[in-house]
Amino acid sequence: MNRRTFIRHSGIVSATVLSQPVLSFPARDFPAVRVAQNQRNFRSKAVEETIQRVKGQIRNKELGWLFENCFPNTLDTTVDFAMVDGRPDTYVITGDIDAMWLRDSTAQVWPYLPLMKQDEPLRQLIEGVIHRQTRNIIKDPYANAFYKDDTKVGEWKDDRTDMKPGLHERKWEIDSLCYPVRLAYGYWKRTGDITPFGADWQTAMRLIVQTFREQQRKTGHGPYKFERTTSWATDGVPLGGYGYPVRPVGLICSTFRPSDDATVFSFLVPANFFAVISLRQMAEMLTVLKGDARLIADARALANEVETALKQYAVIQHPGIGKVYAYEVNGFGSYNLMDDANVPSLLSMPYLGAMSATDPIYQNTRRLVLSQDNPFYFAGKAGAGIGGPHAGMDMIWPISITMRALTSADDREISSCLTMLRTCNAGTGFMHESFHKNDPSTFTRKWFAWANTLFGELVLKTANERKHLLNQAG
């Protein structure tokens, strides 16, 4: 079932309307909802030990229950691990959709990286994700989602783009090529292991730089275009599938956002910031690996060029707040002031390492996107947070609440986010893609592993850095 159909037909779950945003239940109301041990896809000793350690620090029973369910959800339900030709191979689905997104697969395993050194099978599993992502990038650097079976023909047979067997969807998104670099860099920094970064991986890195260069559109549109016959406006790309015009100022075009919704202006600012840090991480790794000197130089030069263009074109003077980062620009002076819940978002920039959380323009931008000045910021009886066009108006994404906490240094803000996340699960024991601002029992996607694992990452980070917040009753 495709993501759009899932949301439209079976993603909205209705139950009793919750009249209060914060509910309290006795422990007996927290049933076992985690997959039974004998049905789990992968079991990590380090993850299980972490669950027990952190649960012991959490005073609120519901919060502890959620952590126990959500943190291992990727391993329990979405990974398919095997040894192929003598090396690890890991296929990772998003949850309710049997396809592997380059973005989601990185985000889903990212919180487990600190545990690799004490769990060799877990390290192998993550190495397998790197191998699978490398293979997918080489197959098509413009695709965002892939099948395990290279011969499987996807459901989007009428898309006007270069579809081929093995592709679930071919929506060009800058972040799809940034996330695999983020995972590779994080793995390398944690382990020192260079085994996954052989000739194939370096070929994939070359394709990433080539694709970014093509999508600067300095000499024409480049080889990619996308059109789809659909009633969903955010799935369509105007003007022959290339999108609205941009001036070639050095920024990289992204036809789609990390939500898989089409951009309005193709220079997606948070994705370009992500590209800068990813290109520099790539160059650092290739230098240690003694890779292609020309590729290293090109990656660094491209990072510098995009960074310079961001300084010139991405900063907007807001009449009430001051200098802020726009969400999208076109190089002609047009801009889109908003933020979307999906990462990379403007809110998430410090989390991705693209800038400091104390950056004055980021702080101004944060105030904007977490207010009614952002058209996709919603506040109601059940909570407050950022959504986006993908799930519709008044639908808050738990990912945005989690990201707000992950990028905050304020105890009160973090505690408030944890409370909202705890009370928006609608008794299911898991996070969802989105929930209605006035009723958390109206939600989309019951099985969405990225939201679950990211929530687990927040609780683990809080346990390691601000344990006192978990000791509060909540």
TrEMBL record:
Identify the domain of life.
Bacteria
Gene3D superfamilies noted in UniProt? 1.50.10.10
InterPro entries in the record: 6-hairpin_glycosidase_sf, 6hp_glycosidase-like_sf, GH125
The record's Pfam families line, in alphabetical order, gives: Glyco_hydro_125 (PF06824)
Question: Which PANTHER family does the UniProt record give?
Answer: MEIOTICALLY UP-REGULATED GENE 157 PROTEIN
Q: What is this protein called?
A: Glycoside hydrolase family 125 protein
Q: Which organism is it from?
A: Spirosoma utsteinense
Q: What is the lineage of its organism?
A: Bacteria, Pseudomonadati, Bacteroidota, Cytophagia, Cytophagales
